[in-house]
Amino acid sequence: MSTSRRKFVGGVSAAALLSRVSVASAQNKYDEGASDAEIKIGNTNPYSGPASSYAVIAKTIGAYFKSVNEGGGINGRKVNFISMDDGYNPAKTVEVVRQMVEQEKIFALFQSLGTPCNTAIHKYMNQKKVPQLYVATGASKWGDPQHFPWTMGFQPDYHTEAVIYGKHILANVKDAKIAVLMQNDDYGRDYFGGLKEGLGKEVGRIVKTVTYEATDPTVDSQVIQLKDSGANVFMDISGPKSAAQAIRKMADINWKPAHYLNNVSASVAAVMKPAGYENAQGIVTAAYIMDATDKQWDENPEMKTWKSWMDKWMPDFNKADASHIYAYAVSSLMHETLKRCGNELTRANLMKQAASFKNFRVPLLLPGITVNTSPTDFYPIQAVQLARFKGQTWELFGDIMHAESS
User: Fold this and answer.
1) How far is residue 344's CA from residue 36's CA, in Å, rounded to a whole number?
2) 169 assigned to some structural domain
3) What are the residue ranges in the chain where pLDDT is below 50?
4) What is the rounded distance in angstroms from the CA atom of residue 97 to the CA atom of residue 315?
5) Which residues have C-beta within 8 Å of that of residue 177, sequence separation ≥ 6?
6) pTM: predicted TM-score of the whole model, two decimal places
7) Domain of 362: which CATH number?
8) Which pairs with CB-CB distance under 8 Å and at least 24 residues apart come from 17-22?
9) Helix segments in 158-199, DSSP class H
10) Count of domains observed in the chain
11) For 33-48, what is each residue's pLDDT tens digit?
């Protein structure tokens, strides 16, 4: 004679437990790319092409989410990080992003890199209502929630950064004559517009502007043209490869103006070391994250945690490359944003949470700099501190400067 048995778990029948799970599941809200088990996050990055030095950003993000998954995921869900190579080619960006949105069914796009590449998908992402979140470019256009409510930046915007350079030049360089090297795209133009605003009525101090294409093999001829202008200030608005080339060429032709370098090319490992430390002395940039080569952070708890994390998850990579710290910081913010969504993993809620930070401390930002957003403010970080290259590292100086006081 057989006897039917009911299975009990912790004093609760299996049927009752399944019922509770079903009720809990029914209360969860999901859009495409999210479920009880996983969250699909898309990314584009130039693993190849003229901006391939930035590939370490995506590699670090991938390692970050791998470490999160090993620790149990985010609210019990694993992050499925899908990163594709676009070669810093906007047409390729459109192709791979369409693939991720329409075939891979990603929940959101995170840290897609490059101003021209993000510009190419800007309208598409907003038409599809898929978050284009914490993009890896400081163009000012990413902070326009009225017209593009599904797109948000992360770092200080290029325009504000360049305003600060313009004002610093006027205050510190006597009879400034400014030469500008500028990448010929929206990224370059954004910085250039900020520089002109910072100079105000002194904008005529710009005596020479020379552009280059991201695919150009060198900027040697451009640097020679700029020296020949008689300028005593050099504003370098270029990516890492071209920035390193410019520094080396300036040394070759013995041109020694006051030198300002945009933050996106301030990596010690990717720019300063290849250019030659001796050639980079005195360059000024704007910083908002800690630099691993700066000894003052050696005992900082956030820096020590990051170094231990690198030792475990990226042991063969160079800690002196600032892109690792940048990627870790922005990944921490994305982690927190997803965590705050709880069990309502809808795209609208993701953007709502992204637009609700108040004085939030992201690991490895400079002390005094926090993340602040609102439904009408899509600029998470609006403060920087100037730094000067000395020896083999950046030396911070002056006060933290906020956008409104720049």
Assistant:
1) 11
2) yes
3) 1-12, 17-24, 405-406
4) 30
5) 205, 207, 229, 230, 231, 232, 233
6) 0.88
7) 3.40.50.2300
8) none
9) 158-172, 186-199
10) 2
11) 999 999 999 999 999 9
